[in-house]
Amino acid sequence: MFLFDWFYGVLASLGLWQKEAKILFLGLDNAGKTTLLHMLKDERLVQHQPTQHPTSEELSIGKIKFKAFDLGGHQIARRVWKDYYAKVCWCLSDSWEANIDNGSFADSASSLPGRRGLQEAKRELDALLSDEALANVPFLILGNKIDIPYAASEDELRFHLGLTNFTTGKGKVNLTESNVRPLEVFMCSIVRKMGYGDGFKWLSQYIK
Ligand SMILES: Nc1nc2c(ncn2[C@@H]2O[C@H](COP(=O)(O)OP(=O)(O)OP(=O)(O)O)[C@@H](O)[C@H]2O)c(=O)[nH]1
Ligand SMILES: [Mg+2]
Predict the structure, then answer these.
(1) CA distance 92 to 138
(2) How many CB atoms lie within 10 A of CB 63?
(3) Using CA atoms, how far apart are residues 72 and 112, in angstroms rounded to an integer?
């Protein structure tokens, strides 16, 4: 019963109560996808190994069906992303990791070993955005880890992902007539439980 109450509360607060949502978590490795999934699932912060195999969590209570696919973000895992498109009516393009530790974007993509480059994120995102199979799928882009000093600002992230003039607007924006795919950027920190709730609320208005 406790679980039910908690779950109801979370879904209601995210605007997902009584809606059927399938959400795909995509993003570079280490972005925080699995952390977010578990935070949504049982509000626990758990340290995870990198995701090797796709996992899905299906939670169903009353009328709600909430299914999230968590696909690993490392290079090989990215190859299977497209196998999941068909199953998805909702896409959460999660957390292009944008923290920079020397304050310079110019070399963040290439010169620092192990660093997630914004260029790499942009490349993957562009491929998703231009994929026919995802043409009508709304994209919520979460810029995670804003708790880290030097994390990119929202404007920087928009700029480097090439989204400056592409996002469709926060708040309530009716796009049904316009044939435009909903796309917005929200900054968040999963560990601090900040920001992603606003993102999901935004997303929920586009769930039919
Ligand atoms: N500082 C900070 N660290 C975070 C945050 N969210 C996740 N992390 C950390 O980032 C690391 C990677 O998180 P995961 O959830 O495993 O990342 P993933 O996107 O699932 O990675 P793959 O499975 O490799 O694709 C972990 O050490 C998390 O604790 C956050 O909001 N802030
Ligand atoms: Mg993972």
Answers:
(1) 8
(2) 9
(3) 22
Positive/negative CA dihedral, 165, 128, 149, 46: positive
Whole-number pLDDT of residue 11: 62
Answer yes or no: is the C-beta of 189 below 6 A from any ligand 1 atom: yes
Residue pair 11/201 in contact (Cβ under 8 Å)? The answer is no
Ligand 1 touching residue 89 (CB < 6 A): no
Closest ligand 1 atom number to CA of residue 36: 15
Q: Are 128 and 26 in contact (CB under 8 A)?
A: yes
pTM for the model stands at 0.79
Amino acid residing at 169: G
CA of 146 to the centre of ligand 1 (A): 12
d(CA 66, CA 73): 21
**Who's near 184: CB < 8 A, 6+ residues apart?**
139, 140, 141, 167, 168, 169, 170, 199, 202
Ligand 1 center–CA 21 separation, angstroms: 23
- Give this complex's ipTM: 0.98
Phi, psi of 91 (to 5 degrees): -125, 125
Give mean pLDDT in consecutive 10-residue pieces for the chain, a chain of 208 residues.
53 59 73 80 74 70 56 76 60 39 30 53 85 82 85 85 91 87 90 86 76
